[in-house]
Amino acid sequence: MTDPRQRQGKELSEAEAIERAKQGDAEAFQVLYDMHKRRVYSLCLRMTANTAEAEDLAQEAFLQLFRKIATFRGESAFSTWLHRLSVNVVLMHLRKKGLPVVSLEETTQGSGEEDTPKKDFGAEDVALAGSIDRLQLQKAVENLPPGYRTIFVLHDVEGYEHNEIATIVGCSIGNSKSQLHKARMKLRDLLKMQRAEKAAKS
Q1: Whose CB among 12, 136, 150, 175 lies 3.0–4.6 Å from 171's, allowing a Cys bridge?
Q2: How far apart are CA 89 and CA 95, in angstroms?
Q3: How confident is the model at residue 56 (pLDDT cuts 50, 70, 90)?
Q4: 43 close to 158: Cβ distance less than 8 angstroms
Q5: Averaged over 96-124, what is the pLDDT?
C-alpha cells in the first residue's frame, strides 16, 4: 500500500503480474491491462470496424480476462491466450448481432465476376501485397462483410493458420481458405473502386 510498493507495481514483469492477478491483486491486473490494452483494442477495431463497439468489446475482453485468468496455465504465451480470448469475445458479439461470422454462400453476390480468377486460390495475393496505401486498405477492410473481414483479419493481419481459424470460428479448413480467397477478391474490387473514385476526383 505504501509508495515504494506502487512504484514496484509498475515494474512488475508480466509473469509476476499474472501470478499476482491470479491471487486477485487488482494492481497486478492493472499492470496487465496497461501492457495489453492497445493491442486488444486494435484487434477489436480491426474485426468490428467500429470504434464504439471496439471500446466496449476491449472492456469485455478484460472483464473476461479478470474472470478467467486463474485458468491460464502458461502453455502458450500470455499474449496469445489473451488474443484468443479477445477474438472469441468479438465473435460472440458478431453472432449475437446475427451477423454471419462465416457464411458458406457468397454474401455479396455482385456481378459474379469476383470468382473468375480461381488460379491464386489460397496463394499469396500479389495484387494486395503491392504498394497499397495503408489507409485505403484499412477503409477497404472495414467495408468487407463481417464474415470475410473476420477471416481476413485473423489470417492476413493476425497471422493465424487456417486450421487455427477453423477451430476458433467453428468452420472447416476448406471453408476458411475459401472465405479468405473471397475476402481478398472483394478487397481488390473495393480498392479498385476507391482508386477509380480518387482518380475521378483529381
Answers
A1: 175
A2: 10
A3: very high
A4: yes
A5: 48
CATH code that applies to domain 117-201: 1.10.10.10
Does 53 have pLDDT greater than 60? yes
Nearest to 164 by CA among 40, 94, 76, 36: 76
Residue in this structure with the C-alpha cell 495484387, named with its chain if needed: 127
| More confident position, 170 or 129 | 170
Whole-angstrom Cα distance, residue 36 to residue 61?
11
Alpha carbons 47 and 144: distance in angstroms, whole number:
10
Q: Where are the domains of the chain?
A: 7-96, 117-201
Instruction: Please indicate whether residue 21 or residue 11 has the higher confidence score (pLDDT).
Output: 21
Q: In this structure, which topology does domain 7-96 adopt according to CATH? A: Rna Polymerase Sigma Factor; Chain: A (1.10.1740)
Give the predicted TM-score (pTM) of the model: 0.69
Integer Cα distance of 90 and 87 in angstroms: 5
